[in-house]
Amino acid sequence: MVKVIPLLLGVVPFGLVTGIAGVAVGLSVFEIALMSATVYAGAAQLVALQLMGAGASVIFVLLGAAVVNLRYVMYSSAIAKTLSPLSKPWRATAAFLMTDQNFTLTLNHAQELGPRLAPWFFIGAGVPMWLLWLLTTAIGAWLGAKVPESWSLDFGIPLSFLVLLIPALRDRPSIAAALVGGVVATVLAGLPYRSGLFVGLLAGIATGAWLEGRKR
Amino acid sequence: MKGLELWLTLFLLTLSAFALRYGPMALLDKLELPEWLERALRYVPAATIAGLVFPALLLKQNQLVLFGNDRLLAGLLAAVVMMRTRNVLLTFAVGLGVLWVLQG
Question: Which residues of chain B neighbour A52 with C-beta distances below 8 Å?
Fold first, then answer.
């Protein structure tokens, strides 16, 4: 359980910034807290809030969030076996609590934990994260514009993702997928509705999958 | 976005996020993914997360800034720390620390 703590620390600046972003777009503290409690997906929340602020309609907000959340499809299929011992309600709970962090942690320690503990570790790591997320976004929203920009708290967000990206660069295809995905998303950052992210994703997947195919 | 439109959006966002997290594991009992899809899915996290990190480090006000970019430098140093030590706390400390120093 101690292993979760460093990752929990990363949640703090992320949560604060998301809360601040929420009020900047006009949501109330309650609305942001509710969003964090139910949607519980930081990157997607940020993209959604940004799109809302830009006046996008519901459908585009949903699409933007869905692109960012697509990685959960991979996580879900990858962790399905590990979570299979759980009963349906517990599996749904585990799914609800799924984040980059508890997914990565559980998979990395799957051997040590063994098949009986692993699913509970996943949930056990997920609960404090959810609580912390809720708390930090609410505090961020409440603090609102009072946190000075000079603190550059928002840098905590790319840092949080960087910390997840590095371990994902396991082989050449993954590195290529990341490079291509990252560069394309950067070049196309000006496209509306964050569609650059989506194009980058497709380009990255194509690159990774193609390179993997060539290895054989 | 306010009122009913906001509540509708939050509701749909919640459903969508949960569907993506729960759907695959619930359905996988019944159907197997075709090989090409499994292979493609494998690269979604790396490509998505990079798609979130790169612009944040490389762009300043939507312009590409490669030199004199303190976030890029702080990010690169943090990346090196992460690669060498796999220590999350240290990585955060270095990343934020370097940025604060560079920003004076």
Answer: 1, 6, 9
